[in-house]
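Example record

The entry below shows one chain as it appears in the dataset: sequence first, then structure tokens.
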Amino acid sequence: MRCTYCGWTVNNGACPCGRSSVEEVPELVPPGTRVLCRAGRGPSILRWDPGEVTGHIGKVHRVETSFGVCWCEADDLLPDSEKRRKLLEAGARVWARWPDGRWFPGTIDAIEEPLRHVTWDDGDSMWIEASHAVLMPVESAEIAPGRQVIASRWDGERQLGIVEEEEGSGLFRVRFLDGEEASVSGGELRSLPPNPFREAKP
């Protein structure tokens, strides 16, 4: 199950924010709970969609979304939380869900209940539902293969990408979100914090 505050899975001990532990997190999300859900796992399944738990088969949750019914394990659900909403104050660093269902780091800079205005680290900003953001307890990350980074492209524009490999001599091969790749020096990269919705551990 995921911590409803920071979004990290709580499988061994506690989550990075320290607000949830294995003993405190239930194995099943009750029917009627609003959630964000991921239909499956793997490198190509990064989309999280809003829905509602409508039942269970064993430990598998039945979730109704606008795209249809999903069957999800607990690690693929993020329940809505009034307690989390109260902590999402102006100035809070967060992981916030972009309209395409992926999560990116940003900062809350305004509040109009039940909405939060988020400015993402790449400069985009938007009003979103508070249930589409979680607290960011882990701020730093080393530049390494698999990490998300903001990198300079050939035209000087800075965009999100993934480090594919370290090439040596201070260079890293980066794959941008549009599929284009480039060799970028470490000095031109800014590593993003570990993403609870893409990685196994902080």
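Notes for this example: The mean pLDDT is 90. Residues 5 and 84 are 5 Å apart (CA to CA).
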